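Appendix B. Raw example, untouched.
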Amino acid sequence: MRIPFSRRLVCSIYFAGILITSGCIRSGLRARPSVAVSIARDANRNQPVAVDIVEIDDKDLSKDVAKMTATDWFQKRDQIKQDFPKPKSLSVRSWEWVPGQIVPDINVPMRRRPRLILVFANYSTPGPHRATLDPAKASTLLLTREDLKAAPIAK
């Protein structure tokens, strides 16, 4: 017995919806790159350090923020977040860590690959204290006595 085309179409759409909502098909979702964090015992000259991971999808905003030092970022962050309230334009995750703290790996949730992922660390010493993360790769973030360093993890 042959099922009419319209009924087959309805059934196909129904089962596709079940698969998508159950998680069997994950179209449009990206892998979550992880960031391994290591904080030196004398990081930021033995003072807590605020760290922001900033995902930016807006072309103009990414150009502007990429030029900022950490001092500029932390001074202007609240205003930038107000100016770009849509999560798809700008996403900011913030922490404050103490020297020597053990930090579990961070998974960076992404709805889609952003134009730019930056890390800012609010050190007490002068300097840019900014690093760029590759959204396609796992990275390591090292907070040292006077700066932060980021690098992709080789597989």
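End of appendix B.
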